[in-house]
Amino acid sequence: MNAYPLSTIATILGATFTLPSDPMIDILLTDSRSLTYPERTLFFAIVTHKGNGHDYIDDLYAKGVRSFVVSERQHSAKYPEAFFIEVPDVLRALQQVATAHRGSLKMPVVGITGSNGKTTLKEILYQLLHSRMRVGRSPKSYNSSIGVPLSLWSIQQTDEIALIEAGISLPNEMEVLAKMISPTFGIITNIGEAHQENFSSLRHKCLEKLKLFADTETIVYCADDELIREGLEDSGLLSRAIGWSRKDRSAPVFVRSVETERDYTLLRLTIRGGEETYRISYTDEGSIHDVLLAITFLQKVCPEVLSDKDAFAHLDPISMRLEVIEGNDEMMLINDTYNSDFDSFSIALDYMTRRNTEARPTVLIVSDIHESGTPPATLYARMAELVARHEISEVYAIGDELQEHRQFFSVPTTCYRSTDDFIASLPRTDLHGKVVLLKGARSARFEKIVRTLEKRTHQTILDVNLSNLVHNFNHYKARVPQGTRIVCMVKAFGYGVGSYEIARTLQEQRCDYLAVAVVDEGKALREKGISMPIMVMNPERSAFVRLIEYRLQPEIYSLSLLEDFIKVADALGEHHYPIHLKWDTGMHRMGFDPGMIDDLLALLQQTSSVRVASIFTHLAVADDKTEDAFTLQQLSKLQGVSHRLSAELPYPFYTHALNTAGITRFADHAMDMVRLGIGLYGISPIADEAEGLRPVAGLRTVILQVQNVPAGDTIGYGRRGKVSRPSRIAVIPIGYADGIDRKLGNGNISFRTVDGTLVPTIGNICMDTLMLDVTDAPSAIEGAEITVFDDTLPIERISDKIGTIPYEILSRLSPRVARRYFNE
Ligand SMILES: *Cc1c(COP(=O)(O)O)cnc(C)c1O
């Protein structure tokens, strides 16, 4: 690891160093939740629109951190042992430290930018290079104004090449990144729609990205990409650019043909005049594009790699997914079995620590790590130290190298020769209720362990992509004026997607409030460790005591409910307990009538046991353009109530009205806060407004059995499905009790097989199963997967078919459908 004396960093930042001792700093921390080694950490108290790093100093000091970079003066009496470096701008200071470190690095630094595929390309290059040289690279996809300095900091003097990603979402960001990275070589993947809202045109964005390469020797790109080619020309960089091409025979890498088969692709290329064929295991266009960029780069910088055809044939799928799977015996499994280098190991441990909000015992199942360049003794000593730091309770170590170095581990460690030996020992292993991290090299085949440990109540799985949830959250956050608070609606089990995992993710994103429908939903979140403010939309009188006990905040919609709540709050000795007042401005569901304001004020002025935290209303037709007059009238009624109450109440409160459709269409009326629901889950409530959202949920299941049925026979209850030709009929374990509406039977909907064929339902849908006509889909065999909906098979297909809205389809998926959460 890099380590600098604190005094050196102080000098870089122009501060005077006054301490008697000079601690070594090897961790630059920007997110207080990732703290591991307090005494070696320098915390940067960055201020962003998401939060103020200075708020975490107290907590970090209590945990032993002593070195801080701040922009707000701190009381040194409060932190007698701390050293504060005061700067005008903490983010800038972080970047200065990274720039100084970059200046000391001698190896070539490769800057990678573009709209998509940066991480994939980086990981492909890593896989191709790391057996020959020491490769330093950005962790995960750290490519922002904070991520880039942290990436640079992770590069060691002993690395022989560094791969650094740079991503921008705003004009003028790239200059800052370019100064820090100062790339020797550059690669640009493509220019797509991502973050387009902040750029006047694709061309504008392209020119911004190319600023990374102002002082770069060689730039690699796809020469057939007109936009990038013109951008390079306009930036005066074309003479330094080399590209691959399908059209230009004189390109350094000329693509003669690309033949994609079911599970591999053949690339026939002419590289500097010589004909070469590569077989790669990717079949998707994006990855193939990235491999061609990698080849173009390598023929210039490291041509010997190109003769290693085997390395290309064995490129692993690039999956940055850390999956969280519900295990049997109440385990929580965190599956990270795709890459096994040391950096990803430390990321996975960090992830597990954050995930474990209930402080359950943690278990690590790990295989030998194969990382060239580091002697095994060093590698495993570092691993053991991290394990101890993260307070892992037990380790199950699989492989000869780990066995040989077991003495490094201070926590109880059991060794196994092979994955199969470990599986054989499972009946004697107690993993009940624990959080289990699986971190294995591909060759260790840890998926076998996952299959053994995962909960198998049902073969039907709802995949939930938490990274996309975060994307959608930020998408809406960017649509409302800065500083607007956000309530995330996680009612009805998170619209059917799952409340705890969603809540935990949103808590990490520092959303301001969560809202659930009933007290029990809020209680369940509290019991699992969700500590942020939670509103309850429909608080039952009988549960008021429990509501207060769990510090949930009620929505109050009538005088009698308010009276009752005040009685309970009084009896429990509460003072200023936060409540939220709901106003009926036209929806006519629940709420105070604006005419009741005087009675309400009278009641509020008599008590100090409650206090109005916010007032709000719910819009009935925000999604409907033809009804805008009605919506505006609702908004103005609420504003009227708000003015009146703020004149009379001696304290401030928030006012809010917008749901998802409201945010999309009436962002000017965001007021203090908005309530985001369906959009979080990647579904737009407005037909032509899906742009920019990413689907969060996908439903899949497997075929239980396939039968050959002769022409003329019938399928299922009531003999409703008649087959007119000899047919193959598949049964899948999902029925109306799982949330598949009975109206979808008899061919009213089709699902997708693994080879992409759409197969219709046949016969009536049963309670737990349904039948599909798979006569035209030869890949539909027993055990094969069937997709009900996902990112390419939208859930709206289903809701449209039966005349409802996607909200209903999602929220009615039965709890017995296993949810599987992952991050990308
Ligand atoms: C469900 C709900 C929302 C969110 O609505 P979406 O259309 O899902 O964004 C907002 N406010 C209230 C009161 C709700 O009940």
Q: What does this entry look like structurally?
A:
With 824 residues, the chain is of the alpha/beta class. The protein folds into 5 domains: 4-89, MurE/MurF, N-terminal domain (Udp-n-acetylmuramoylalanyl-d-glutamate--2,6- Diaminopimelate Ligase, Chain: A, domain 1, 3-Layer(aba) Sandwich); 105-314, Mur-like, catalytic domain (UDP-N-acetylmuramoyl-L-alanine:D-glutamate ligase); 323-453, Mur ligase, C-terminal domain (Protein-Tyrosine Phosphatase, Chain A, Alpha-Beta Complex), CATH 3.90.190; 464-681, TIM Barrel; 697-822, Beta Barrel (Lyase, Ornithine Decarboxylase, Chain A, domain 1). 30% of the residues lie in helices and 23% in strands. It is built from 26 helices and 42 strands. The strands form 8 sheets. The chain has a 12-stranded mixed sheet, with helices on both faces. Strands 10-11-9-12-13-14-15-16-17 form a 9-stranded mixed sheet, sandwiched between helices. Helix 21 (559-571) links the parallel strand 28 (553-556) and strand 29. The model has no long low-confidence stretch (mean pLDDT 91). The protein binds pyridoxal-5'-phosphate (PLP). Residues 489, 537, 618, 659-661, 675-679, 685 line the site of pyridoxal-5'-phosphate. Residues 696-822 form the Alanine racemase C-terminal domain. The active site is at residues 491, 717.
